[in-house]
Amino acid sequence: RLSREIHDSVGQGLSSITLLLGAAEQDWDRRPTTAREHVAAAGSAAREGLDEVRQIVRDLAPADLEDDETGEALPAALRRVAATGAHGVEVQVRVHGDPIGVPAAIASALVRSTRGALANVVEHSGAHRAVVSLTYLSDEVLLDVRDDGHGFDPTLRVRPGATGERADRGRGLDGIHHRAADLGGRAEVESAPGEGTTVSVRFPLDGRGAGRG
What we know:
disordered C terminus, 5 strands
């Protein structure tokens, strides 16, 4: 579990920083204002990554998601991930239903799953746009990350020890699946060549609809 958390927080954060700084280098002479924006975004991603490393060392749950009475912390965290973790892709975050507080472990899993899914969008999909949807239902919370990329065949299995694009994508998706299962949820991937990809993660909520565990 720890290796998955490091992959989806530290690893994906460093990947985003690398992409942003590479873009800044390309724009430095011709579009200095844009280059500075890339550098600022990289700095923001680095600070967020440092915060997450500190939190992983402590308890593997982002501090701002704990004791969230209003339910606003999770949507805010997803918007931060969308703003810093998907360079070159236009990302919208949509919230459906009334936000409620969910257990910190589940909120953390949703944030890290979003980060992992968007990293796959940036690195593998060729997408121009992605939509992150967070839906609150009476008995569960649902996350969808949908992109307009070239898609892939999710039934093709990656061989153990394989390297390259498919292997990287496979490890990221496996992490999302395992993280959901560890907390009693489930994850699904819908995709086909030429049709984009949707990664869905859902977790049940307790009878009160706002678990505090």
